[in-house]
Sequence to fold (254 residues):
Amino acid sequence: MLEIQQLPVLNDNYIYLIHDLDSGETAAVDPAVSEPVLAALKLNNWQLSYVFNTHHHADHIGGNLVLKKQTACHIIGSEADRQRIPGIDQGVIEGDCLNLGKHTIQIIECSGHTQGHIAFYIPEFDALFCGDTLFAIGCGRLFEGSAEQMQQSLRKLTALPLATKIYCAHEYTAANARFAFSVEPDNADLQQAIGRIKHLRANNQPTVPTTLQQEIATNPFLRANSPEIQENLAMQGATELAVFTELRERKNRF
Ligand code: ZN
Ligand code: FE
Fold:
């Protein structure tokens, strides 16, 4: 059995702790800072075995070195990010498998936000830790990759089972939903989601994890083929890539 803890840190980041009850192994995903991780480990009486980094940005690797010093954890990141991830011990690529106790974790390369961005997927638990690639009702900004690359990465993620839980690295959902509503106001699933999100945020509750099924129904970046979105963008019949590119540019300015 795995236990997943979600630690809200900085303005809107989430760090995840994945703990395997059988082996006692624990991984921290994208530790932006070290203190809340160390506090949670102490509270649960867990030892940190691994840090998993999805990409090199400061709000995902900021706690690496202190955690390594304090816990002697093993730091795993993208082979492509070897020079940019502090304290990295092991570089991984698409298709590699890691273990947390007896559980298998698959590496999915999903560049676009950065080059060499990776996701950690645990098929047995329908859990995907995808950093800044797929967000609830949004997707990451294109800092190092192209729209085409991001769309291909998102296609890889949306090919996973619909029940997959999406543990993304930021609580951006309310702002993402406002943008989604501006391009697809008649989407009933989106309208319902907005109600839920407002309620959750008003109570200071996380809207993450979401599920792949929910994202396919509401996330404009997965819905470039929606006739309503195409019409609102005056892009009827345009390619999905052209629509996706326009959506990403509009979101940047929104
Ligand atoms: Zn980032
Ligand atoms: Fe980030």
Q: What stands out?
A: The mean pLDDT is 98. The longest strand covers residues 2-9. The radius of gyration is 18 Å.
